[in-house]
Amino acid sequence: MTDWNHKEIIIPNKEFITKQFINWSLSDTLTRVVLRVPAPFQTDMKKIVKVLLQIAKNSSFSLNTPPPEVYLVDLQQGLPMFEIRIHISDIKLRMPLCHQMHMLIIEYYQNNGIKLPCIPNYLYNNQLSINNFDSNYPNTNYYTIT
Fold it and tell me: Cross-referenced InterPro entries, in alphabetical order (predicted)?
């Protein structure tokens, strides 16, 4: 059986459990890589999709068939989260592809004045206490959540 990421899954049965297992090579080395990329809410979402898709298509590791895909998949606390889905010919290309894609995305963001957003964390007044960290460094404080 093959999953959505084009990985073969072995489903055990009685023969598999009770008899000798031979580790055959996989019939297909094609696999899908999924990268999640946040974007600032103020950015043109259609442009982000277009740029991420172009970056994926230009990757030296990305296959043309099936073609790369980009989707807005989530709004985490108001932060748009995109998924880039790219097929590669061999699992060994997974890390080089991820590295290349991340570098190109960061480069695009920096060249276009886009700050890579972080998921916001909220602290309320009654959750924050300030304690003196070290008497040798009187201006140094640490913060604890209570």
Answer: MS_channel_C, MscS-like_channel, MscS_channel_C_sf
Written as tens digits, the pLDDT of the chain (146 aa) is 666 666 666 666 666 666 665 554 456 778 899 999 999 888 899 999 999 999 999 999 999 999 999 999 998 778 899 999 999 998 889 999 999 999 999 999 999 888 888 766 665 555 555 554 555 555 555 554 54
**Residue ranges with strand state E in the chain:** 31-38, 69-76, 79-88, 128-132, 141-145
Report the C-alpha gap between 15 and 120 in whole angstroms. 51
Q: Is 77 left (phi over 0), alpha (psi -120 to 50) or beta?
A: left
Domain range annotation of the chain: 30-111
Fold of 30-111: Alpha-Beta Plaits (3.30.70)
- The angle, 0 to 180 degrees and rounded to 10, between the axes of the packed helices 45-58 and 94-111 is 140
pTM: 0.65
